[in-house]
Write a structure and sequence with these properties.
It is a single chain. It is built from 13 helices and 22 strands. It is α+β, with helices and mostly antiparallel strands. The chain has a six-stranded antiparallel β-barrel. Strands 7-2-1-11-21 form a five-stranded parallel sheet, covered by helices on one side. Strands 8, 9, 10 and 20 form a four-stranded mixed sheet that branches. It is elongated. The two termini are 19 Å apart. 41% of the residues are buried.
Length: 422
């Protein structure tokens, strides 16, 4: 019987274990935490955005890094196949705004429980509170120039126990959410097996803003704003959606997505420009301001902004506005009105950095995909060694796409390791 050892009990490791066991392999899954799916448990604020219900071709457009690598695995096990698989395991799903898919119960624990139950039903051995210290490799005779130099033999645990295996899958995750045990051990073991690990950065992570007025808006959420991030004349990101102000800067889906396009590029500050009224053209917004000022011509400027902005935003807009707050509306010049219009369309902040891995949803960077077979997830350096999930240099924006990378690569590895038909 084919002996498979999986290191890491996250989504990639669990799904690989299930399909390898279904194919008749003897599966041992090793997890360093006291339970499986510890990071999965907290994803989507505990609701678990398991995937995205978009058309399969759209999956690629939402990837940030190395989307072409995912062709085989996305088509081999796509988002709709995953949804059917989870529902067959007894977890009903629902689709929300942006095609985000959640368990109907809104409990990530239901996903983890179903996967655990299936692993147990199939007879997979699950070792909790066990940490792998190193891979055990055997040097191969080089018969071909490009053939793997090593062959996997097993793993050694921290307590000295050796587990022998025909195939090993590393699915230990990246560096994000260190509270769940993310240490980068998988990257270290991959490097010891001859693999290159690209520079790693926190991604889908809140942004740090220089301006004090931004911090005063802590807790304010804005919907339907557009954002542009640029360095000099170069636009690094443009998007539309929801954001949140914090005590250090900005967060929320729009800003988290923006962060994935900034990693490694913030050695110099970047400019974040918000359009607070993207649905209105400058002409439409000017007409709106003109109507407001005419309807309230005897009121002071500071008292007519309630219909334009949330209450918490008004003091900041007054601070930034080129119009004295005590000025009566009938005294505001056309030039002042146009300048205020420009502010609404171009609220500008300075991004000085991102928060660290402890607040990042994912890791950008990882094991170089050039050294991994995209169809099988097998190492090109070590025979019998496979990789899946966040450990690899693959990442996507928010919305369930990163979890789909984990499910799809885990399944691809299971197919290849167990020799089953895809």
């Amino acid at each position: 019987m084919n002996k498979i050892c999986i290191v890491g009990g996250g989504p990639a490791g669990m799904i690989a274990g299930i399909f390898a066991a279904r194919a008749g392999s003897a599966v041992t899954l090793i997890e360093q935490n006291e339970k499986l799916g510890k990071k999965l448990f907290i994803t989507g604020k505990g609701r678990c955005n398991v995937t995205n219900a978009c058309q399969i071709e759209e999956l690629f457009t939402h990837m940030v890094t190395n989307e072409k690598f995912m062709y085989s695995s996305f088509y081999g096990f796509d988002n709709h196949t995953l949804m059917s698989f989870l529902e067959e395991l007894g977890v009903p799903l629902k689709v929300e705004r942006g095609n985000r898919v959640f368990p109907t119960s809104d409990h990530s624990s239901d996903i983890i429980r179903a996967l655990q139950y299936e692993l147990r039903r199939l007879g997979a051995e699950v070792l909790l509170n066990k940490k792998v210290s190193e891979l055990i490799l055997e040097e191969k005779r080089q018969e071909e120039k490009k053939a793997p130099a090593n062959k996997i033999k097993g793993v050694r645990l921290m307590d000295g126990t050796v587990l022998w295996a025909d195939k090993i899958l590393l699915a230990t995750g990246g560096l994000s959410y260190s509270a769940t045990g993310a240490t980068g051990d998988g990257h270290r073991m991959a490097e010891e097996a001859g693999h290159k690990v690209t520079a790693c950065y926190p991604a889908l992570v809140p942004l740090v803003i220089k301006e004090d007025w931004c911090h005063k808006l802590q807790g304010l959420s804005l919907k339907n704003v557009s954002a542009k991030v640029r360095q000099g004349k170069k636009v690094l990101y443009e998007g539309f959606g929801e954001m949140l102000f914090t005590h250090f800067g900005v967060s929320g889906p729009l800003m988290l997505t923006a962060s994935s396009y900034l990693t490694g590029k913030l050695k110099e500050p970047a400019e974040l420009v918000l359009d607070l009224k993207p649905a209105l053209s400058e002409k439409q917004l000017d007409d709106r301001l003109l109507r407001e000022f005419e309807a309230n011509h005897n009121k002071q400027f500071k008292n007519v902004l309630g219909s334009l902005f949330p209450a918490k935003l008004i003091p900041v807009m007054l601070q930034l506005a080129p119009i004295a707050s005590e000025k009566k509306c009938n005294e505001i010049s056309k030039e002042e009105r146009k300048a205020f219009l420009g502010l609404i369309k171009h609220v500008t902040m300075t991004i000085t950095g991102t928060r660290d891995f402890s607040e990042a949803i994912i890791t950008q960077g990882g094991i170089s995909i050039k050294e991994v077979n995209p169809a099988t997830m097998e190492s090109k350096k070590t025979e019998g060694l496979y990789f899946a999930g966040e450990l690899l240099d693959l990442d996507a924006v928010t919305g369930g796409f990163n979890l789909q990378i984990a499910w799809s690569t885990g399944y691809a590895a299971a197919v290849a390791m167990s020799g089953m038909q895809a």
